[in-house]
Amino acid sequence: MQHGQDLEGAQELPLHVDPGSGKEFMDTTGERSPSTLTGKVNQLELILRQLQTDLRKEKQDKAVLQAEVQHLRQDNMRLQEESQTATAQLRKFTEWFFNTIDKKS
């Protein structure tokens, strides 16, 4: 959220290059304003740092999520194997049970 606020602030400092010198800048009132340029650069540096921080956090979050996905895949495979084993055991028990009842009848 912070970098969004910084972006809004950056829009408040529009600059125009003075075509005569190429080095001096004028603000929207037409006055030359090197301090405005410095302020704009400082704002952009702050935005850049915030974006870099956000990117680092996103990469960390991505790594955590990827590890969680891998863990869930392993759990899924284990549960599928357990389900197949339980199904086979239930099938054998059912056959035994009905065979036992048939023999008693």
UniProtKB/TrEMBL annotation:
Coiled coil regions in record: 41-89
Keyword annotations of the record: Coiled coil
Residue ranges, annotated region (Disordered): 1-38
Top-level division of the source organism's lineage: Eukaryota
Name of the protein this chain belongs to: Signal-induced proliferation-associated 1-like protein 2
Gene that specifies this protein: SIPA1L2_2
